[in-house]
Every structure is written in C-alpha cells, then in structure tokens.
Amino acid sequence: MLLGGKIARLALAAVALGFLVSCAKPDTLVLKNFTLIDGAGDKAAPDSSMIIEDGKIKWVGPTAELKAPLGAQTRDLAGKYVMPGIIDLHVHLSIVRDMKQDIANYTLENVQEDLKGYAKFGVTAVQVLGTDKDLIFPLRAAQRAGRPTMARVFTAGQGIVFKGGYGGVAGLNEPVSTPAEAVKAVDEQADKGVDLIKLWVDDELGTLLKMPPEVSKAVIDEAHKRGLRAVAHIFYLEDAKRLVDQGIDGLAHNVRDQPVDQALIDAMKQKGVWQMADTLTREQAMFLFGTPSETLNDPLFKQAVSEKTLALLSSAERQKTVVANPHYEDYPKFLAQAEANTKALMEAGVNMGFGTDCGPPGRFPGYAEHRELELLVSAGMTPLQAINLATGKAAQFLRATDIGTLAAGKWADLIVLDADPLADIRNVHKINAVFIAGQSVPTVTQ
Predict the structure, then answer these.
(1) How far apart are CA 187 and CA 14, in angstroms?
(2) What pLDDT is attached to residue 6?
(3) What is the mean pLDDT of residues 77-104?
C-alpha cells in the first residue's frame, strides 16, 4: 500500500512536471549572465538576465533573481553586453542601387532587402523621411500586426517639396507652389496614414529656390490640424529659427552654416522642438571619398556595399568627381559646425534623437549608423549618451512606447555585443547576435 502510494505520488509529480514543461511556450527564451545597457539612460548593469515570451520582454533584472520557466530555451551570454536595437530617425529606403539614384529602384523586393540589411547591423527600426512609395503602408501594417524579422518601418510617405526647390526624388514627390497646394499635399499624405509630415526648406547653397515662409507655415499648420507632427530638412540658422517660430516639431538636420544661438536654443526648449537627427554621417560622406579612404578597407563597411560600389568608390575617376564639387572644401567645415552645434544643443538640454540621412548615393545603410555613433562621441558625447539617443530617445520621438529600451512589456529588439560599447563606442561593431521581436536574425560578421 505504501509502495503503491509512493508510485502514485511519483506519477502525479511526473504529470505535474509534464504540465509545467508543456506550459513553457516554444518561443520562450532566456538570456542570462550579460551586462545590460537598457537605453533609458541608466548605467550598465552587470550580471543581468532576461525572459522573452512571444517576442516581448516578460522580465529583466539581476541574474540572482532569475526564475527561468521550465522548458525555455536558454542562452548563456557570460562576457557579453546587451543593448537595445538602434533606431534611425532619418533614412531613405531603396532609392539607390550601386550609387545610382532612381525611383525605379523602389520595389517591394528591394525595400525588404534593405530592411533586412539594416537589421544585420543591429538597426531594428527606421523612419523614412519623405521618399516612400505607397507600397510601404501595407508592409508597415503587416509588421505592426505581427513579429517582423527585419527593421521596423515608420514613414512620412511623400514629403512636401517646393516647386523649383530642393528635396524629394524625381518621379515621386510632386512639388507645390502655393499654400493651398501645400495643404492639399499634406491632406493626401494624412489620408494615407503617414506617421508624420516631412518638408524641405533649403536652397542647396544658393542654387535653387527655397520654400517661402507662407508655404512652410501652411504645411505645418495643416499637419497639426490633421493630428500629425511636421519635421523639416534645414541647413541655415535663419530657417531653423523661422520654422521653430512657425511650430515645427523637429529638425531633420543640424544647423550647418553658423553656430546655433541662444535664441534658437531657448525657443526649441520652450516649444519642445526636437533636434531629431544630427546627420553628421551625411556631412562626412560629402567629402569622405574624395581621396583614398581607410573606410574602404573596413571589414564592416565592406559588408554594407556591393562589390561594384566598392570598386567605384576606390576608383580615381570617382575621387576626381567628388573633389570637383565646387563646395568640396566647404564640406569639412559644415561637418565641424554640425558637430559643434550638436554639442551645444546637447549641453543646453534640447530634446535630441538620432539619424543619419543614409540611403542616397555615398551614404550606406547599416554602416552609417555605426559611423554616426562614432561621430557623436567625437562631437563630445559619452558613449552612453550616444547610445541613449539612438535607442530610448529615438523611440521617444517616435512615440513608440514598445521599443527603444529593454524593460518588461517592450519588444525584445536588441543587440548582443562581444565587447563593452561604453568603454569604446567602436565596440558596437562587435555584433554577436541581433534579435527583433525576440527572433534571432542574420547579422554581419566580425
């Protein structure tokens, strides 16, 4: 009888254990023993662990407090560092192939290829500023309804360009001439369900017409009327100040013609205007390949470009073309000014995000984000500050409450690194693994 009772108890225990094991979901994943950089601004937390279920973080905290579900897949990440996936607030998708810009390049196949390419470098979300075809909307909807295995996408649809002015892509953006046309253009984008409105206010160093104040005001006002934020491409201090006065929500580049002044800083802080992207990479790219560049030998860079592109950038003919630009000598000065203004805005406490303006010829998705982090540190930020801009702060600009930081309830969009990025920002290159919605995706090799 005693033996029978013991067998019965063992049988019940076996059933209970089987039940517990079966309750552990097939995609439950435990990551343990890593150093956590959470993207929220806190210092790194050694000896951390995480439980991921259905692609979201169920729990994250000290390894000593880990209670791993029975049957969960476990990865021991001892010696590794885990940070949120990078979010780029300023990109242009699939308009270029092998250094040639053509809107015909923008196909669903190429868009998906590019979004997977971003993910390989640990860029888990991108915002396209004004150069998307409408095919982006069903793709975005599918992502938001499920668990993507490529970079998440946010879009401004087709941005607003002034007729005879700078901006957009030939064959896609339809220029406007009047405030009434600008209002109509904003309404068309709002009806499609864009995430925000983009406008270009620039004269391309005096060579083109600039969007007049009455047109930019019409764009901004209509965007707000439709419940959307407006962000602007700018170059000049005077344009930045005028747009802030008109109610712009974000600047997609830093001022590059002169130092930002206290009046602009005060106005941006008072009105909550974001320096949503500094695009230092963009400024460097304008002159980087005018001479033989060490970048061409960077193993990480080689994984971001085609063989044809690499050969073109290495050619003396291409380098001569870059140097022949009448503003070639000015571009390093523009970069230096952008770096100085980045430092000034950061120290003043202006809201700042992260963006590269990659996608056009010479600005390479995936690699550009890594270079941007390096340039932000060069401009005076700590590695932790730069990482926070590219993760938690960028998500804050997007108003995306489910990405950007590594906390319970968020999507498990993250990068596993082999070395400490807070000791050297270049260690962000040392990617061990990338996860999007808790799913491991292909990555670059070291």
Answers:
(1) 63
(2) 38
(3) 98
Rounded Cα–Cα distance for residues 166 and 207 (Å): 9
Q: DSSP state, 85?
A: P
Q: What's the rounded Cα separation, in Å, for the pair 19 and 53?
A: 18
Which residues make beta-bridge pairs with 131? 158
| CA 114/CA 176 separation, integer angstroms | 30
Tell the burial category of 314 from Cβ atoms under 10 Å away from its Cβ (0-12, 13-18, 19+).
Answer: middle
For position 430, what pLDDT does the model report? 98
Helices (H), 121-212: 136-145, 179-192
d(CA 203, CA 208): 5
Please name which of 274, 282, 254 lies closest in space to residue 340, comparing C-alpha atoms.
Answer: 254
Contact 322, 267 (CB under 8 A): no
Judge whether residue 20 has pLDDT over 80: no
Name the pLDDT band for 26 (thresholds 50, 70, 90).
Answer: low
Give the whole-angstrom CA distance, residue 251 versus residue 278.
9
Q: Are 75 and 50 in contact (CB under 8 A)?
A: no
Q: How far is the C-alpha of 125 from the C-alpha of 123, rounded, in Å? A: 6
Q: What average pLDDT does the segment 124-131 reach?
A: 98
- CB-CB contact of 406 with 48 (8 Å): no
CA distances from 302 to 86, 279, 313, 445 (A): 20, 21, 11, 11
Burial of 436 (0-12, 13-18, 19+ CB in 10 A): buried
Rounded Cα distance, 95 and 410, in Å: 32
Q: What is the pLDDT of residue 25?
A: 47
Q: The tokens 């201090």 sit on which residue? A: 237
Residue 446's pLDDT is 77
Per-residue model confidence as pLDDT tens digits over 372-396: 999 999 999 999 999 999 999 999 9
At 123 the three-state DSSP class reads strand
Instruction: Please answer whether residues 162 and 174 qualify as being in contact, where contact means their C-beta atoms are separated by less than 8 angstroms.
Output: no
Going by C-beta distance under 8 Å and a sequence separation of 6 or more, which residues neighbour residue 368? 88, 281, 285, 304, 356, 358
Per-residue exposure over 415-435, b if at least 16 CB sit within 10 Å of its own CB, e if not: bbbebbbbeebebbbbbbbbb
**What is the arithmetic mean of pLDDT over 334-349?**
98
